[in-house]
Amino acid sequence: ELKVEQNPLFLSMQEGKNYTIYCNYSTTSDRLYWYRQDPGKSLESLFVLLSNGAVKQEGRLMASLDTKARLSTLHITAAVHDLSATYFCAVDSGRDDKIIFGKGTRLHILP
Amino acid sequence: DSGVTQTPKHLITATGQRVTLRCSPRSGDLSVYWYQQSLDQGLQFLIHYYNGEERAKGNILERFSAQQFPDLHSELNLSSLELGDSALYFCASSPLARSGYGYTFGSGTRLTVV
Description:
The complex is a heterodimer of chains A (111) and B (114).
Chain A: E1 4-7, E2 10-14, E3 19-25, E4 32-37, E5 43-49, E6 55-58, E7 61-66, E8 71-76, E9 85-92, E10 99-101, E11 105-110
Parallel strand pairs in A: 2-11
Antiparallel strand pairs in A: 1-3, 3-8, 4-5, 4-9, 6-7, 7-8, 9-10, 9-11
Chain B: E1 5-7, E2 10-13, E3 19-24, E4 31-38, E5 42-50, E6 53-57, E7 64-68, E8 74-78, E9 87-94, E10 104-105, E11 109-113
């Protein structure tokens, strides 16, 4: 059964710093998704990663996928307060037609 | 507006009752996924429907059931409600059963069981 682990689960950092959120998954998959959720709100799609070595960037966020290591990273560059949110990775289980989410990383950026 | 519509937005009901949550997918999307989000369990996959057929089941309780209708809207039925069923219930839609374009989430239904 596919398991998705994110770390850290909580992250408090200062504005201007860089940090990385890690997403490990347990079975082979070539489709991985990153989402953002603000408190009490829905999930907003950030990135869709579809192949080994895929890298996508949007503003201060960059996501990458290494399917051999079963690892995706979400890198935050020069964090700003507006990036405070919970970030989820989700993995396509393949034949099972399930999309399994990690527990989320709650990011708090201090001004 | 994501294009995925969930109703109602809030629901308060008593233990033992039955409720129905509704989801209308984005226009043209054939797949609907249901998730339960609680503080301690995170986002739990419940069930996936594609074009009216059940494609996958997750940790969905026997008290819960779902269906997708010919017009592609989906309903999640929760019966014999318990306090622990209080959570945010999201549906998400995508064009295909396995989407290379990601999944679009609705705004959720917040269920409170008292």
